[in-house]
Amino acid sequence: MWDYRSTSTEIKAGAPSVAVFGIGAIEQHSEHLPVCTDWYQVREVSRGVAREFNALLVPALPYSMSQCHGPAPGTLWLRPETLASVVRDVITSLRSQGIQKVVVLNGHGGNFVLEPVIRELNLTYPDMMIIRPLFDGGFVVADIFEHGDVECHAGEIETSLMLAISPDLVRATRVDHVSEVGREFFDYAFLDKWTPDGMIGISSAGSAEKGRRALDVAVERVVKATVETFAALELLRRDSSSAEAEA
Ligand SMILES: [Zn+2]
């Protein structure tokens, strides 16, 4: 596996065929979690996945579309067109060095622009396979978490993940809050209007043990989905090139 600490010479010698590119977010996460929560989570899962594929681990992007948290101190956001441009440029630079398979891991629920940009890149560069196995929400595993159904932000799931990744960053105060309105309100009003500091879920139920299990499951699921998706795409290509040869 290679990452930003590798030399260019080492990466050239290793010639990785797969790159893993995580997208994080810097935004409020209630009173007890740091603003880097989404970024740390996606970095952790990306590293686990990159290890499995002996891939080039691209530094995860810290910021993305956190506009709905608006003026909450510490929150930073990119406009959708900025995020689209960054993703396009990072993937194009990977292509220019011969990497054709890219796994994009989205660590933040509001990044709707990833779908069209990934679709556009795949159709523009048919030599590439850029996939986006589900990452956000993939943690809602009934046998690990008790309150996954009311989790939206900074609750049992995210608290557990951060207790597993970086317990030193988790503060002692835990606020529980179940939202009275649905997820669509992310599109209608800043979160501070309808949640206490972006809190939606049962943070008091979080534990490091649950977090560790969830991280293992997340890596396992993303690896499985990646293997299956690349295999299906390879099959599609083989079928279409043999059909062309016959014609
Ligand atoms: Zn989060």
Instruction: Assign the CATH superfamily.
Output: Creatininase
Number of strands: 6
Q: What are the low-pLDDT stretches, counting only 5+ consecutive residues below 50?
A: none
The set of bound ligands, ions and cofactors reads: zinc ion
Distance between the termini: 41 Å
Describe the 3D structure.
By secondary structure, the protein is an alpha/beta fold. It has one domain (8-246): 3-Layer(aba) Sandwich (Rossmann fold). The protein has 6 helices and 6 strands. It has helices spanning 8-14, 37-53, 80-96, 114-124, 156-165, 208-246; strands at 18-23, 56-61, 101-106, 129-131, 176-177, 201-202. The longest helix is centred in the C-terminal third of the chain and has 39 residues, at 208-246. The protein binds zinc ion (ZN). Residues 29, 37-38, 153, 158 line the site of zinc ion.
Main attributes of the structure:
4-stranded parallel sheet; Rossmann fold; 247 residues; alpha/beta; binds zinc ion; 6 strands
